Amino acid sequence: MALSCSSLCRRLSLVRLSVLRTNGTATVLYSPPVSCQSRLPLCRIYSTSKVNHGIGRYVTSRLQRANSKYEGFLKRRFPSFYQLYHTFVEGFKLLYQDAKEVRRIKVKMFTGRVKFQDLPYREMEKLRQFRRDVIKAVPLVMISIPPFANYLVFVLMYFFPRQLLIPHFWTARQQVEFRRVYNSLRARQHLPVLKGLEHTSHKVKDSQLQSRLKDLCTKVKSGSNPQVSEILAVRSLFSGPPLGIKRMRVDHMRRISRLLFLTPRLPGFLIGRRLNSHAFELMQLDRALSRMGPHQLSESELRQACYFRGLNSDSLGVNQCQEWLSQWLQVSCSLKESEVSLLLHNIVFLSANYPNAVKRSH
């Protein structure tokens, strides 16, 4: 007579293990099966990965819910502080993304033995901007090291965001406002740079080059925009004395440093090295941009590229920015490395009157 499943389980549970003893060792010939009901608790005990995953999701969801409630409370009760808090949170996210992107580019350069000048334009620009942001953030980090100094840091960041914070932590309104401030600071140096060039022109022995440089400075001072050919006509003056980077007077180098927002309060040889480094970096960026094609830039990238090269692009249309950047690249891509000083002076030559001249033409 066939045994049912339940009776078979009961009978098997009564069977003892048969043991063969060989050389003092015990060999198990049979062990009774464990019923489904007895296995269920064991399954619940040993499935720790699923349990941990469920706990992790639960904790994450609870934290997200608490964070959303906290943000809602700040938004209702303290809207100004909420704006600051939200800007900081989004800024850290953007900074983290930039750090990951920079790490990827660095790995690519190391493993593929790719030089900086051979990178695509966007990767080159990302490295340049991230390095400047990190350098600006270092003093703030140093201030926050002592105990309880973080309270002072928050106060400083609140009252001096332009001086202490990088653009990741600026609001949209602050970005427009601070660009206007930086453009005005740069515009203050246009006239001193032009006067310095006029003063230096007296040291030029070639009368024809001297006349061309004076005419160029006079044209810019009168509010007109020079042609690319007029700028390139004096290029030889910027490869050696008196206007090469290593041959300029220290006071003139200090004026050029202010155009690039570099500190002028350094010894002359250090200023010359920094100007030389920034000029070569700018030339490499221009060549990479020319290879890619400036028409492939988005509107924000286009305006940022013009701003970095000295133009107040906020008051111009997209077509005007593209036209100006095209003129800049014509000058830059025509220069030799020994003439890189002209690229720094081009910040004044091309951008000093471009918005005003456009308004007058309309």
List its salient traits:
17 helices; two-stranded antiparallel ribbon; 362 residues; 69% helix; 2 strands; single chain; mainly alpha; disordered C terminus
Detailed description of the structure:
The protein is an all-alpha fold. Helix content is 69%, strand content 2%. It has helices at residues 5-13, 36-46, 48-77, 79-112, 121-143, 149-159, 161-164, 172-187, 190-201, 207-221, 228-232, 250-259, 268-292, 299-308, 318-332, 341-351, 354-361, and strands spanning 19-22, 25-28. It has a two-stranded antiparallel ribbon. A hairpin with a 2-residue loop joins strand 1 (19-22) and strand 2 (25-28).
How does the SSE layout of this entry go?
Layout: H1 5-13, E1 19-22, E2 25-28, H2 36-46, H3 48-77, H4 79-112, H5 121-143, H6 149-159, H7 161-164, H8 172-187, H9 190-201, H10 207-221, H11 228-232, H12 250-259, H13 268-292, H14 299-308, H15 318-332, H16 341-351, H17 354-361
Antiparallel strand pairs: 1-2
Helix pairs in contact: 3-4, 4-5, 5-13, 9-10, 9-12, 12-13, 14-15, 15-16
